[in-house]
């Protein structure tokens, strides 16, 4: 045991603390890096020697550079991300739909229907009046236009959702490719015995990003690589291999199915005929994430409202046509339809091609007017006007046209409010999880600054020990001179 | 719990966002004047508001119907009043013929007077409003020709003044002046003066009787025209009754509309005082949050290290 041992101990201190300062520097530099987990230096004292007759360590060594992370939190974050993005996709679609149904601030379909039947009231007061007849035609056209307008805004929302699927699947594939790449790098680093902390951070970040887009389950192998399975069971990433998630338009009108290719690096070319189907119309809830939410918008939210609009259009056309065909027009003709009998949906409702102001059947046979050629007969106009306040059997129960439409508006309101609440709750939950993750993994500058000072002082101390040893050597050498 | 500056920043952003959206909502309410600006603000109240609006709108449609019906009935009433005056003259001339001497000059003057009065009655029967003949039923052509033949229908046009409640807006000219379609038989002897009376036919018969100096037929004619005058008076009081009903319905609708609009306003109109107080509360809170955030985000150990 000689003075040289002091040099050894001091130099181990200098090395260890220099490394600790490097790690601290790395932490400080990455204070704003997304997904970065702070790293801690674990120091250990070197093997003990008993050369002096008692046990004393031989300096310090770096046992490990650990990253602070929590597997449980990562798992919860992955699930919460999927749920949040799913409801967010629905919320933004509903917020696009809602203005179309906002009868509170502007006149919509409800007013158009009321005005249509109101025009028949006016006609009943003066059944032969050409102004009143023209008003009926105009009001009917406005109502038809309102139906078309609402139908087309719903169609736009659905087709936008369908188009978005293409971009989302491309993003998923992109993240899958990056994850496979990171997996490859992790394996390479491990094979040379390196520390893959930063790569593991990237791996976890990519997993969280994937979970935003689609519902996933993942597993981490012993070698640190991640494998990802989609909600339906299809494998997206397996160690260094990944699959392409893509859309395939089928059916008429064409809607995108979600398909997944085989695994590989790069994966085999897309073969829609043989590849696995991940999700088709109606599978949104299973698929999950932004992808699933977007599918639900296309497959259930929009069709639900469209079905109600169609039901209303069907009832208006059927009821008005039945009465109108039984009535007599100004020119004595009877049996004519008011609306095109083939247009029974909100998208296809139209006035009958043969309808003109003269052809509006305001008259209805009475005992004294058996085949109304009298242009003053208003019986049928009264009957049609009366439809406006009559209840019909709708799928939601008996209601007048006005009430049915009001309940549709209120349904849209309930759904929008509900999704907003769910999204807010999911966001709050996600925020809490992120706060927990941040608390565990995020860099705190104050803390790192204190560490920096600590390691700097230790570095200075070790250097001082070298000074002391040098002085000691000088003294020893001076003794023999 | 370990707190990092990143968490503080995230929290600050989240809470500032909450404050902003609360202020934004208040701003929207104050600027639009409405409590509920879209269905999702309050779906159930939205439903209620839309139903109220529907009721208000249908009330407006009904009062517009009533106004039109009143116009028609008022025109009818005017015509009926003139007819009643004409019938008074017919009655007087007929009465004179019963008691007076039937010399040639008085006969010819009575006949010419009655002919004139009859054609005036026919003119009244052809009264119209715009292109609508008020006594023509479902016909839109002139209901009485010069001879008094009725070509209209005896139907009454009706208008809806409340859900499932109709009011007739016309009087049948055939029933009024001809006792029906085809015309009722002109009463004589025992049946004289029994309704329904063919007024125009009775005047014709009266003219014939006067010309023929048939005193029995003249007496029958007097009875007939008296009953005919009553028939017109009955029609007048019928129209007056309908006008009264319309008037009652109208004032009911007006008071109903007032109530509905008040309820609608109570729900939908922003209480500016309340909104103002809430806005100032929120603004104060938001200001505090902003100031706290700006102070806290500046804190760092770096400021105290050399």
Topology diagram in text:
The complex is a heterodimer of chains A (481) and B (306).
Chain A: H1 3-29, E1 39-45, E2 48-49, E3 56-57, E4 60-67, H2 71-97, H3 109-125, H4 130-191, H5 197-213, E5 216-220, E6 226-230, E7 235-238, E8 241-242, E9 245-250, E10 255-260, E11 276-279, H6 284-287, H7 289-326, H8 379-387, E12 392-394, E13 397-399, H9 401-441, H10 445-480
Antiparallel strand pairs in A: 1-4, 2-3, 5-6, 6-7, 7-8, 9-10, 10-11, 12-13
Chain B: H1 5-32, H2 43-99, H3 104-125, E1 128-129, E2 132-133, E3 158-162, E4 165-168, H4 173-178, H5 199-212, H6 215-268, H7 272-296
Antiparallel strand pairs in B: 1-2, 3-4
Helix pairs in contact in B: 1-7, 2-3, 2-6, 3-5, 5-6
In short:
The complex is a heterodimer of chains A (481) and B (306). Chain A is of the alpha+beta class and 481 residues long.
Q: How big is the Rg of chain B?
A: 39 Å
What is the strand content of chain B?
Answer: under 5%
Q: How do the strands line up in the largest sheet of chain B?
A: 1-2
User: Which quaternary structure do these chains form?
Assistant: heterodimer
Biggest beta sheet summary of chain B:
2 strands, antiparallel
According to DSSP, the number of beta strands of chain A is 13
